[in-house]
Amino acid sequence: MVVRVGILGASGYTGGELVRILSGHPQAEVTLVTSQRFAGQALSEIYPQLQGVAGPDGTPLTCRKLNASEAAEMCDVAFCALPHVTSMGVVPEMIEAGVKVVDLSADFRLNNAETYAEWYGTEHTAPELLHEAAYGLPELNREALKKARLVANPGCYPTSILLGLAPMLKEGVVDLEALVSDSKSGASGAGRAPSQATLYCEVAEGFKSYKTIGHRHTPEIEQEIGRLVGQDDVKVRFTPHLIPQSRGILSTLYVRTGEDGRDAKQWRQVYEAFYADKPFVRVLPEGRLPATNHVRGSNFCDVAITHDPRTGWFVVLSAIDNVMKGASGQAVQNMNLMLGMEEGLALGAFPLFP
Amino acid sequence: MVVRVGILGASGYTGGELVRILSGHPQAEVTLVTSQRFAGQALSEIYPQLQGVAGPDGTPLTCRKLNASEAAEMCDVAFCALPHVTSMGVVPEMIEAGVKVVDLSADFRLNNAETYAEWYGTEHTAPELLHEAAYGLPELNREALKKARLVANPGCYPTSILLGLAPMLKEGVVDLEALVSDSKSGASGAGRAPSQATLYCEVAEGFKSYKTIGHRHTPEIEQEIGRLVGQDDVKVRFTPHLIPQSRGILSTLYVRTGEDGRDAKQWRQVYEAFYADKPFVRVLPEGRLPATNHVRGSNFCDVAITHDPRTGWFVVLSAIDNVMKGASGQAVQNMNLMLGMEEGLALGAFPLFP
Amino acid sequence: MVVRVGILGASGYTGGELVRILSGHPQAEVTLVTSQRFAGQALSEIYPQLQGVAGPDGTPLTCRKLNASEAAEMCDVAFCALPHVTSMGVVPEMIEAGVKVVDLSADFRLNNAETYAEWYGTEHTAPELLHEAAYGLPELNREALKKARLVANPGCYPTSILLGLAPMLKEGVVDLEALVSDSKSGASGAGRAPSQATLYCEVAEGFKSYKTIGHRHTPEIEQEIGRLVGQDDVKVRFTPHLIPQSRGILSTLYVRTGEDGRDAKQWRQVYEAFYADKPFVRVLPEGRLPATNHVRGSNFCDVAITHDPRTGWFVVLSAIDNVMKGASGQAVQNMNLMLGMEEGLALGAFPLFP
Amino acid sequence: MVVRVGILGASGYTGGELVRILSGHPQAEVTLVTSQRFAGQALSEIYPQLQGVAGPDGTPLTCRKLNASEAAEMCDVAFCALPHVTSMGVVPEMIEAGVKVVDLSADFRLNNAETYAEWYGTEHTAPELLHEAAYGLPELNREALKKARLVANPGCYPTSILLGLAPMLKEGVVDLEALVSDSKSGASGAGRAPSQATLYCEVAEGFKSYKTIGHRHTPEIEQEIGRLVGQDDVKVRFTPHLIPQSRGILSTLYVRTGEDGRDAKQWRQVYEAFYADKPFVRVLPEGRLPATNHVRGSNFCDVAITHDPRTGWFVVLSAIDNVMKGASGQAVQNMNLMLGMEEGLALGAFPLFP
After folding, report:
1. Would you call A28 helix, strand, or coil by DSSP?
2. Quick one: what percent of chain B has pLDDT higher than 70?
3. Is B316 helix (H, G, I), strand (E, B) or coil?
4. Domains in chain C, start-ordered, CATH in brackets?
5. A244 touches chain C (CB under 8 A)
6. Cβ–Cβ under 8 Å, residues C157 and C238
7. Which chain D residues contact residue A298 at CB under 8 A?
């Protein structure tokens, strides 16, 4: 069986990455790529690194304008890599036409239409799908994903934070008031649209925080933490930063566990058990710390647990490649699950280092 | 008056930076540079960028082996840029010989010889100077520095953290148990000695934490915070990270202020008043956040205060150039004060951007 | 005497750099900065690193819209950092109003209006000034600059190439047909306007040539080489490349000298003599090669001469900081000369390394 | 059939890359990795990115000391990633024991033992193998490789230069006296051994040439150009540079073709024909230029042909990933050919961008 795959909004970094991953997928083939801006152009004109990528008939893949009914005919499953707000205008038609969808935008991540409106400044136009959409973090939600028609692919920051915290949160001992997530991302997270802030000369040698207060990944993080601890109305401190590099997120997670007496070693065992059957999370042995260049180009999430007995803080570190496990890699992992394929198909590559 | 300056241990990044700064100092002249490893070589062979830097007689500066009595004859003031432990073997002789010393190592930063022994794994050999040494953070300790014979130049991380927190700490409302300093530094902080960990290929695209637990700047931070709040035995969570860039430190400081009701705007006023007569701290206006490339090559520390009303956390951000305000720039600022010169001499340059 | 300086088009990298340099100039003060796009905004909003830079009355410098007659009243000398074509619309008025001008655009570099039209695709609107304008390479044209009302500040690539070749060209032995200039520049040369090609993610890890054939600096290089060898119609192979870094140009210059028998050592002596009284060119000793990070932030041009006896090629290497000696630093050097000041005022800083 | 593979000298960048590539090879499995320095350590301690890579029995791969007879028992084919000189001490034993060898060092690239002695400063200790060794550039030498017991994997610079020039050289019209190769490489080419010159702070923002005259890849380039044009004693100007990035080589090749009248378009057709059945060379269409980040992590070599009619120069641009097509990727390609497998096995991944 070879599944026909569409990529809607193929001109961004996540779109290019999807094509790269799927070019090595044994049971999927890209039959449609769309881009409003580059319609009519070969994909290799937008992405020179993809020179030679061919469509199903062996000719170069060429971008088309998005037409939902046409798309529905041309593919069995679609990755929607469109901007938020745009995405919720397209996804319902695709679903209705019987196409399974992995949506990489933020549009279907929040269960609550009011929360969406509050953080995105616009009413949700497909609220009925908010409840149906499965949250696409396979390590926490695998069974639901196998049955989903629509997967909301998680944000890159939430992925790093949730995978770093899930085993501890599940144990119910985390002091949520004290919880701090200090997260750092490479510039690819800002996308490929030209802007002064992401020019080479502005980013190089220029570490900083941005949107220190009120980043839109906050409600997503809070919703999923709430689900893990079985509690509504969780509020979390989350601070994003920009690293002068292209790929990679590292989250430094500050955790207090109250009266719970377990030390780092014991927690490491909890993590190892929790992730035993999840091949993309690597719980690092004692003495090893994650680094973004040790996961680059791969679908791995590396996690380390450290403890500072002088102050009582746990510091959990979690690293992913934001374009892979934080976006396109995870999206393919979700597709694999949705379609009943082996979860890790096309995602087995070890990181590119250096 | 032109003061004769010696630089002991000139072959590291801080030594090279001292020469650069002092080449523009109107009242000081470098008369001695020492390096065990490069004795006999012109400074421009070690530091090609310094091609053309001349000593007092107009000939190129050449490295000599360190000889304390000779050094005492050749200079009025010395910057000691030697490694810790080595430094405390040299400084007492210099002081005794009447040379004023700014020590850039960690050897005279801690007041307590036992704390030193605990964190540095060796007994302090000049404990009598620990009490005499003035802690060289001019914004907090200017008067003591004017009278000092020996200045302990602060660590780069402590400088960024203390300048970011001082006005809040002074007000006595900071919850020290909740205090978290998540700090990030460029690779120059690791020095110029060859090591695999600081190779270009290991650092590029490779954000990570290191020494997550137990970094040696911790007791220095705790001691100075203790002094600001008038309390012994302060313990603070401090997490260092390595940024893929050469220069710059950004500290993200998480602060809770308990019952104190002031918001970010009110605190900004407190900071502005506190730093009104300290020209090297720039309290940023609302809406602006510091970035390491906005202070690079300068002696500035940029500080911003933000507040997250949803969780109650303050997030204070503080950026410095670790080689300048975090080391050599601050050292020259200290020298200026010790010698009764204008505090900002040779330090007025605006940052190099991009 | 303090000269009043205007910066027209202050919002680009060269404009910001001019403000930085002039903030340390003892005989000049910036009284006017213009920007169409940012009129009304404080300069520190455009350039956060310049927070604290003050105008003549001590208040922050604020951008104004360009008004030539107003500008003529507010300054004695103006740096025109506007885009080409725009510049030639403004400069004549300024000159006429008695303001001396250093123009950083390409508009007054070529003597020949037809050549201008051919390479820039538009007629020159002030051809009468083309002959008057002095070509602003002080090392080759110092006397003319002292008398100039209008200086055409050289392109960054031509500066690196001409300083690398001038002593050899002057000797009349260079085989111009064989001459190749393979030049590499950091991304700041592309300016601060948002574009996909200069995004961090596109530039990092991405060395390439661009405009391999037909870069607009070609006729400028040819004109000035022609002047040095006393020959019209010189044609030269010049290939620009983009380096993944912010600042710096390195030109690798391939030269054949026909029957001339001098070796690298002899040529080094020729270079040393030629540049003996030009403080910003550092002819490197045998065994040392220039690097862009050894001139960064400075006005130096480092030059090395090497010879390959096996093939007969000379390889001359020349490095500058494109924003300094390649643009704003050289512009201030030209201003100093025009106004009868010491050539190196405000330009004495050694490079920032690392 | 699954072939057992040994990697001798696995602790460098090329060794780590071989493990990465082979982890995705359907017909090969790594059974042995050796490292003198790290014997006894798990590979993931040396290369954290390889956490989880398992050997044939499913346990983590662990480094052993090199023992040739043991090695010969444990593998059918060996990649020798040892330093030159060391390599020629090991390879003969392996060959004798019936192990096929791809040698990544320089030891078997030159046919002539005297040339080796001249450039490497030591006598060759296995001169009898110099003639037997097949030069491992499959695009030029595929048939010989299929029959080889010993393959000399080409140098990274020669690979980029030869693939860029081969079709032109084959036509016999290139003026070899005028030929210039200006080549630029990322820092991974310098290896993983600690050295001051390759520290992050020394490389960043620091483009430069090194070994401008006399780089050891010169005789290899000359030998293979000589073979292509059927001429002995070819001498070529080759200038290496260091780019501030980890991976990638771009060679800018200056070519004169004398009386030959073909233009860029016609040459492009020649190149396309020449490389029609060589899947790893991508001849770029008109208007497109290669960039190192468009081949990163892949085995592709991208080539563009441009022509400057004003001066008569052709400028051919050739980009590879030096760790892949310039070393480990090409080595696996050679292994595939030696063992009668499909040439591109495990090498099909498209570049990682950004």
Report:
1. strand
2. 100
3. strand
4. 3-132 (3.40.50.720), 157-321 (3.30.360.10)
5. yes
6. yes
7. 49
Token pair listed for C296: 């960064």
Query: Beta strand A134-135 with A77-80: parallel, antiparallel or unpaired?
Result: unpaired
Neighbouring CB atoms inside 10 A of C43's CB total 26
| A306 and chain D in contact, CB less than 8 A | no
Eight-class DSSP state of D328: I
Closest listed residue to residue A210, CA positions, set A237, A181, A185, A242: A242
Residue D276: Cβ within 10 Å count: 10
D342's tokens: 């499909």
With a CB-CB cutoff of 8 Å, which residues 12-71 of chain D face chain A?
13, 16, 19-20, 23-24, 47-53
Q: Is D20 in Cβ contact with A349 (below 8 Å)?
A: yes
pTM of the entire structure?
Answer: 0.98
Per residue in A100-154, pLDDT (tens digit) is 999 999 999 999 999 999 999 999 999 999 999 999 999 999 999 999 999 999 9
Reduced to 3 states (helix: H, G, I; strand: E, B; else coil), residue B102 is strand
> Are the beta carbons of A244 and A207 closer than 8 angstroms?
yes
pLDDT digits (tens, 9 = 90+) for A65-84: 999 889 999 999 999 999 99
Among residues A189, A297, C191, A190, the alpha carbon closest in space to that of D293 is found at A297
Q: Where are the alpha helices (DSSP H) in chain A?
A: 13-22, 43-46, 68-74, 86-96, 113-120, 127-132, 138-147, 156-170, 200-203, 218-229, 264-274, 329-338
Q: How far is D79 from chain C (nearest CA, A)?
A: 27
The two three-digit tokens of residue C173, written as one number: 């032995």
Other beta carbons less than 10 A from residue C286's beta carbon: 10
Residues in CB range of B277: below 8 A, 6 or more apart: none
* C190 DSSP assignment: G
Which residues of chain B neighbour C50 with C-beta distances below 8 Å? 350
Question: What pLDDT score was predicted for residue B56?
Answer: 83
Least confident segment among B201-215, C264-278, D45-59:
D45-59
- Tell me the pLDDT tens digit for each residue of D122-162: 999 999 999 999 999 999 999 999 999 999 999 999 999 99
Q: How long a stretch of residues is chain A?
A: 354
pLDDT of D1 > 80? The answer is no
From the number of C-beta atoms within 10 Å of its C-beta (0-12, 13-18, 19+), residue A262 rates as middle
What ipTM score was computed for the predicted complex, to two decimals? Answer: 0.97
Tell me how far apart the alpha carbons of residues D107 and D126 are, in angstroms, rounded to a whole number.
9
Burial class (CB in 10 A: 0-12, 13-18, 19+), C242: buried
User: Could you write out the DSSP letters of every residue in B267-303?
Assistant: HHHHHHHHTTT-TTEEEPPTT---BGGGTTTSS-EEE
The residues of B annotated with a catalytic role in the active site are 156
Angstrom distances, CA of residue D319 to CA of B310, C276, D157? 51, 41, 10
Is A241 in contact with A208 (CB distance < 8 Å)? yes
Q: With an 8 Å Cβ cutoff, is D89 touching chain A?
A: no
CA distance D82 to D107: 10
Q: How many alpha carbons fall within 13 Å on the CB side of residue C119? A: 20
Residue A101: beta bridge partners? A78, A150
Q: How far apart are CA B3 and CA B28, in angstroms?
A: 5
Q: Is B319 part of the contact surface with chain A (CB cutoff 8 Å)? A: yes
Block residue for tokens 């995004």: C199
| Least CB–CB distance from A294: residue in D23, D48, D300 | D48
Mean pLDDT, all residues of chain C: 97
Residue-level length of chain B = 354
Choose among B126, C59, A208, B204: nearest CA to D13: B204
Q: What is the 3-state secondary structure (H, E, C) of A243-298?
A: CCCCCCEEEEEEECCCCCCCCHHHHHHHHHHHCCCCCCEEECCCCCCCEHHHCCCC
